[in-house]
Amino acid sequence: MKCPFCSDPNTQVTDTRENEDGDVVRRRRRCPKCDKRFTTYERIDLKMPHIVKRNGNRTEFDHGKLAGSMKLALRKRPVTTEAVDAAVDRIEARLLSMGEQEVPSEKIGELVMKELKKLDKVAYIRFASVYRNFADVDEFSELIREVQPRPRRGKAGKPNQDSEHDLFGG
Length: 170
Description:
Negatively regulates transcription of bacterial ribonucleotide reductase nrd genes and operons by binding to NrdR-boxes. Residues 49-139 form the ATP-cone domain. Belongs to the NrdR family. The protein contains six helices and six strands. With 170 residues, the chain is α+β, with helices and mostly antiparallel strands. The protein has two domains: 12-43, no CATH class; 50-147. The radius of gyration is 26 Å and the shape is elongated.
């Protein structure tokens, strides 16, 4: 690291500390030539991929837009802000792990639907109905059937709804 006072390229690190979250490293440095001290900070610089929209236009990834669309689908649903933030973080981590410079908007939509399906089935259906732009009621009905729990079958092949086995998850 070059000294900001005398431009000498040989500086010495006298102290290194991480912040509480572990995502920033602070280094105290000393220049042996001019004996001045200064501080540097190291942060991770991750670049999110650009988004390729359906019409071919490209735009920068927008954390706020992603979180906003999920919160809109989850409006008036019993899901905590922390759970939404964690889902957004998982989507961003997945996008970064792909290592791509550009990602189709459809891929992000699929990642959002996957997270919403885990968080809240109603929000999942809300988002999917807009995102997939259903042509008819049958497509919508199919989506609802997809998220409905299927009854377990007993030995006689009939639904086993009121046995202790089902009531207590055994």
